[in-house]
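Lecture 7 notes: from sequence to structure.
We start with the chain below.
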Amino acid sequence: MEQVIQNNTILVVDDDKPILDLLNVVLEKEGFKKIYNASNGYDSIQIVTKYNPDIILLDIMLPDTDGFSLCTQIRQYSNVPILFLTARNSDLDKLQGFSFGGDDYITKPFNPLEVAARIKAQLKRASISGQSKRIYSTYDFGDFQVDEKSGRLIVNNQQIDCPAQELKLLLFLCQNPNQIISKHTLYKEVWGEYYGGDSTVMVHIRRLREKIEIDPSRPKRIKTIRGLGYILDVSSTSEDRL
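Predicted structure tokens for the same chain:
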């Protein structure tokens, strides 16, 4: 279990600095070496997409959002255990926490050692079930590379900022290279449902082309197959595209 603790990363989200400091001290004493902190929803999402923590301790009352909404956002990127840590202790709040995708619910005031124990229990359970870890891939097509774990897009040796939804779309294309993929499939696999229109996929495809294509108006990588969908063409080299 000690090795499991040392190898796992924790994200603690709370806008109360004394609580963050207390939890950091206790968790470090309990053997955790990789602890990230965030005090708002925006920073939390950045950490989740960049570092992919193994477990998240999440306050409900945050300055820019609420923990329930943030949990829903996080679930778009990660299935890791999420433990709510909050002063809201009604049965309705607890039920909401679980319904929004939380795995545990801890009320304030709390015993920090109990929090550490619950974190360990969740990590052990996730480790046994195999849900907290998965194999991540790095896709290298010469002129651009995508690192699935870190969420990094490198184009011609330069790191390019890529919003989460665009990255998810690009990753799905990378996982299915040289295959024609319909817009309906892209909606289902990347957005989780079909909205019935074409604009969302089209806009995201255009933005990806602007990032990875030499000439976005004449794409050589992400091609449109009229009436069928899109294809990520990785059969050509960088020289072929010039």
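Points to note: Residues 112-129 form the longest helix (18 residues). The chain has a mean pLDDT of 85.
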